[in-house]
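Support reply, case 0932

Customer input (verbatim):
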Amino acid sequence: MPYDLLTIGHSNLQAERFMALLTSAGVTAVADVRSVPFSRWCPWFSGKALAERLPASASPISRWATPSAAARAMRRFIAMGLPTTRPWPRDRNFAAGLARVIDASARQRVCLLCAEREPLDCHRCLLVGRALCERGLTLGHIRPDGTIEPHAATE
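Our regenerated output:
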């Protein structure tokens, strides 16, 4: 199934495995949607270190991201089991970020990056993914075993 966009959660993957997953999926640009592009446990996923690992042919990581406050609030809502569908998709900054990702996806194979392994535990799926699907894009989630799970199946 062709996908307009992909997502991936780095979790605790080794850097080489992570890069292999991106390569095998044909990713040419990574959009970091973490509210803080830093990993204490896996420093190779911190913003600058990760950007240096991307091949020269790939676009640099861009932090288009949802507003940091929205991402943090989203994680709290998920942890508490509360609804995660609104009000963030109406936020002007969020909409502008989506527009940049949609525009980039017309020219490149974009992958949204976050830390959570499981898409259903992460705002990249529950917030960003849903908003992109509402705009008619098809999403696939790159799983640690290299398979790509359709967003509809994830939901």
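We compared this against your earlier run and they match. Two observations from our side: The chain has six helices and five strands. The CA atoms of residues 39 and 45 lie 6 Å apart. Please reopen the case if you see a mismatch on your end.
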